[in-house]
Design brief:
Elements: E1 2-7, H1 11-22, E2 27-33, H2 36-46, E3 50-53, H3 62-72, E4 77-82, H4 87-96, E5 100-103, H5 108-119, E6 124-125, H6 127-142, H7 154-164, H8 169-176, H9 180-194, H10 199-208
Parallel strand pairs: 1-2, 1-3, 3-4, 4-5, 5-6
Length: 212
């Protein structure tokens, strides 16, 4: 029996996903969470084999929750199931410790196959992002980005620099002519790549590296 915890902030989608999982005799859904904090608390209490994790939820998001879960409860496999199919989200999830990454829209059979695979210790990537994984591996072998934080993209380092100068998310968004949500997403990726828990730690790392 594979014990699964479902973490997603959309109740309708979450209930549908639970319905798909419970149709499989070898899968037991032991709990549901609507945000990252609840996911971490329930994972510690219930000890599931797999956590199906959405990335962007209210409060603590999926990246931060995945990072904490894999650090504190390494026997639990995190399988990301998200709307996001961009390279930065994928890379951040993998750096945080996720064992699999599927894009919402995957069939019920594919989700069940992925749950079985990550529970068995395998890594799983949906067809939507498999090419991104391969491309990233090839790129990292060929080039190393210069600067104090080679793991960051140019935009992420630009945002980190602005953060180190004390700029708020709204100020950064106005300066870069992007939405506040876009800035928040970039900052989530920055935290994951730097291995920090919050804004103040990221700013300290940036200033120590001479960005401030």
């Amino acid at each position: 029996m594979i014990r699964v915890l479902v973490a997603d902030d959309h109740p309708v989608f979450r209930r549908g996903l639970v319905g798909v999982l419970t149709e499989e005799p070898e899968v037991e859904v032991v709990g549901e969470a609507g945000d990252g904090d609840a996911a971490m608390a329930l994972a510690a209490e219930l000890g599931p084999d797999v956590v199906l994790m959405d990335l962007h939820m209210e409060g603590t998001g999926g990246i931060a929750a995945t990072r904490r879960l894999t650090a504190e409860l390494p026997d639990i496999a995190v399988l990301v199931l998200t709307m996001l199919d961009d390279e930065e989200s994928l890379h951040s999830a993998l750096r945080a410790g996720a064992r699999g990454y599927l894009v919402k829209g995957a069939s019920g059979d594919r989700i069940l196959q992925a749950v079985r695979a990550v529970a068995a210790g395998e890594a799983v990537f949906g067809a939507d992002v498999a090419g991104l994984v391969l491309g990233r591996l090839i790129s990292e072998r060929r080039t190393v980005r210069p600067g104090p934080f080679p793991m960051l993209t140019d935009r992420e380092e630009e945002i980190l620099t602005l953060m180190s100068h004390g700029r708020t998310n709204i100020e950064i968004a106005r300066r870069l002519v992007v939405s506040d949500k876009t800035v928040r997403n970039h900052i989530t990726n920055i935290f994951a790549k730097l291995g920090v828990a919050d804004r103040s730690q990221a700013i300290i790392r940036a200033r120590d590296a001479g960005l401030g």
